[in-house]
């Protein structure tokens, strides 16, 4: 509904009427509701006895539907009461270039240094070019994936020219990756399928490129599969730290409590770490330095592309691991410092999100039926199980049944960690610890087995499991909860897979390439299960149209 007296920018109307992510939206002189909220609108018309949007807004809210009001900034939207007011409003419209504002708003307000200064200044024009020719964000996203896969193919040739071309193509893929989001914001074309593509393709592109570099190095006689798998594990665990911390605090922030950043008097915003961060934000160069230190996707891909083109895959992965470890220490330490000063309890929604991120299988779930002593926090149980498992795998002989026993102990301690709600100050550390234990166990066992092809198969296995964990995160972000319990139980949970992998290594080691075959079959079965259910969900009507607008490092 648009008041016929409306005066304003076309993009103000577009922001209100054309964004499909919201049940209802309103601006001065404008009101729109989707079919779900139509009964509320009809009831509001009956009660108000009028059809003017500005009158109906309050009545629609009274029916329980709160319209979203887009941030218009300098854009004009209004309903002038008389001729002079109308002339003034028209003058205000003429004074502001609406297309320029639209183009500027297509770029995230907060992003990394590389994206902000080296890509967005021209990718936004590419986004507009795509919009004017009818290209959709999903098409651009798919093009970005294809370019990245071609880059991985060039890297796999193992030639100096192949590595150089792969680096150029990787950055071209990143430009398209920025363009798809800018196109979605410019044209307001958000979709459920686009949410899924955007959430998963970045990881698929990066990890496929890792595999390409490892294949290329192998052609030159250098086996770097352990480094490639280590880089994937480190990056995935870093993401789990980000997701776990943010999801733990987001429900509290939404409820008016304390979330990340500035918060109420009892929230983490009053911690010394948060206070220092706020002071540093006032010094411009430190803002960009801190955004670069955390190694977001733009900086990371630029570094990988340059190193791949100019050096060797081994050097590329070594530098990537060192920079990633520094970034992981920096971000994790800061979040721990914020959390230890937290004085408000986490909400039940936060505890539920952390429980979903834990990815608990049937063994740990059975143990969790008996509550662990409250005096021992969940991260202590998780850290104890992780340390016991990894130390055993590292210190005992490859294929030892002691590793299987340690995996059994890990399952018991994991169950104790999730036997109570994860609502403690540091309970968000439990999911990252579980990811570290599971992924690193696979890496160490495959690397120490010295079986031909075991490490590439392990790479595929960890990639399949990591996809499941990323899928869980983006479902939670969309407010639909984790994947169904039957799927989590069917693929074993983190502790079940740790038990299975240690047992497979113990049973197959010394039988040639049977271990490689077993890991490959396991990777294929897991990938088939999680991809089938994930695709079914994301193309269904229950899937949310979620797009990352946070500017958080990726």
Automatic annotation (TrEMBL):
<dbReference type="Pfam" id="PF19365">
    <property type="entry name" value="DUF5941"/>
</dbReference>
<feature type="domain" description="DUF5941">
    <location>
        <begin position="349"/>
        <end position="553"/>
    </location>
</feature>
<feature type="region of interest" description="Disordered">
    <location>
        <begin position="253"/>
        <end position="273"/>
    </location>
</feature>
<comment type="similarity">
    <text>Belongs to the CDP-alcohol phosphatidyltransferase class-I family.</text>
</comment>
<keyword id="KW-0812">Transmembrane</keyword>
<keyword id="KW-1133">Transmembrane helix</keyword>
<dbReference type="Pfam" id="PF01066">
    <property type="entry name" value="CDP-OH_P_transf"/>
</dbReference>
<dbReference type="InterPro" id="IPR000462">
    <property type="entry name" value="CDP-OH_P_trans"/>
</dbReference>
<dbReference type="InterPro" id="IPR043130">
    <property type="entry name" value="CDP-OH_PTrfase_TM_dom"/>
</dbReference>
<feature type="transmembrane region" description="Helical">
    <location>
        <begin position="498"/>
        <end position="531"/>
    </location>
</feature>
<keyword id="KW-0472">Membrane</keyword>
<feature type="compositionally biased region" description="Gly residues">
    <location>
        <begin position="256"/>
        <end position="267"/>
    </location>
</feature>
<keyword id="KW-0808">Transferase</keyword>
<protein>
    <recommendedName>
        <fullName>DUF5941 domain-containing protein</fullName>
    </recommendedName>
</protein>
<dbReference type="InterPro" id="IPR045985">
    <property type="entry name" value="DUF5941"/>
</dbReference>
<feature type="transmembrane region" description="Helical">
    <location>
        <begin position="378"/>
        <end position="395"/>
    </location>
</feature>
<feature type="transmembrane region" description="Helical">
    <location>
        <begin position="317"/>
        <end position="337"/>
    </location>
</feature>
<dbReference type="InterPro" id="IPR048254">
    <property type="entry name" value="CDP_ALCOHOL_P_TRANSF_CS"/>
</dbReference>
């Amino acid at each position: 509904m648009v008041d016929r007296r409306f005066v304003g920018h076309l993009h103000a109307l577009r922001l209100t009427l054309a964004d499909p992510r919201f049940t209802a939206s309103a601006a001065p002189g404008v009101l729109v509701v989707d079919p779900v909220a139509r009964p509320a609108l009809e009831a509001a018309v009956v009660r108000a006895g009028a059809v003017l949007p500005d009158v109906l807004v309050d009545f629609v809210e009274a029916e329980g539907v709160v319209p979203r009001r887009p941030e218009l900034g300098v854009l004009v939207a209004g309903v002038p009461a008389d001729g002079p007011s109308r002339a003034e409003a028209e003058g205000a419209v003429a004074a502001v270039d609406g297309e320029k504002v639209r183009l500027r708003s297509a770029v995230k307000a907060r992003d990394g240094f590389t994206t902000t200064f080296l890509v967005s200044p021209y990718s936004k024009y590419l986004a507009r070019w795509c919009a004017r020719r009818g290209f959709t964000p999903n098409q651009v996203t798919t093009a970005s994936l294809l370019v990245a896969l071609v880059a991985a193919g060039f890297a796999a040739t193992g030639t100096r020219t192949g590595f150089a071309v792969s680096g150029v193509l990787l950055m071209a893929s990143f430009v398209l990756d920025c363009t798809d989001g800018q196109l979605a914001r410019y044209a307001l074309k958000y979709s459920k399928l686009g949410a899924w593509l955007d959430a998963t393709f970045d990881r698929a592109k990066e990890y496929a490129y890792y595999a390409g570099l490892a294949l290329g190095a192998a052609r030159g006689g250098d086996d770097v599969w352990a480094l490639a798998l280590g880089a994937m594990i480190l990056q995935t665990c870093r993401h789990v730290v980000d997701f776990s911390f943010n999801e733990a605090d987001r429900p509290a922030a939404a409820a008016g409590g304390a979330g990340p950043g500035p918060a109420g008097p009892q929230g983490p915003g009053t911690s010394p770490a948060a206070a220092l961060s706020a002071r540093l934000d006032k010094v411009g160069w430190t803002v960009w330095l801190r955004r670069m230190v955390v190694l977001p996707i733009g900086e990371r891909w630029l570094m990988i592309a340059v190193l791949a083109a100019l050096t060797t895959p081994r050097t590329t992965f070594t530098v990537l691991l060192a920079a990633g470890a520094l970034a992981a220490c920096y971000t994790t330490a800061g979040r721990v410092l914020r959390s230890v000063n937290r004085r408000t309890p986490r909400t039940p929604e936060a505890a539920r999100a952390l429980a979903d991120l834990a990815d608990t299988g049937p063994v740990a779930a059975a143990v969790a039926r008996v509550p662990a002593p409250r005096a021992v926090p969940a991260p202590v149980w998780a850290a104890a199980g992780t340390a016991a498992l990894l130390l055993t795998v590292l210190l005992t002989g490859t294929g030892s049944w002691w590793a299987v026993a340690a995996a059994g102990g890990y399952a018991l301690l994991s169950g104790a960690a999730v036997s109570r709600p994860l609502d403690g100050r540091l309970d968000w550390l439990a999911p990252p610890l579980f990811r570290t234990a599971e992924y690193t166990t696979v890496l160490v066992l495959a690397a120490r087995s010295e079986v031909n092809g075991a490490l590439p198969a392990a790479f595929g296995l960890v990639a399949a499991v990591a996809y499941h964990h990323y899928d869980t995160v983006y479902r939670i972000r969309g407010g639909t909860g984790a994947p169904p319990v039957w799927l989590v139980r069917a693929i074993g949970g983190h502790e079940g897979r740790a038990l299975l992998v240690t047992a497979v290594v113990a049973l197959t080691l010394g039988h040639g390439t049977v271990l490689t075959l077993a890991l490959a079959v396991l990777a294929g079965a897991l990938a088939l299960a999680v991809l089938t259910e994930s695709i079914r969900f994301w193309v269904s009507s229950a899937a949310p149209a979620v797009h990352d607008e946070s500017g958080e490092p990726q």
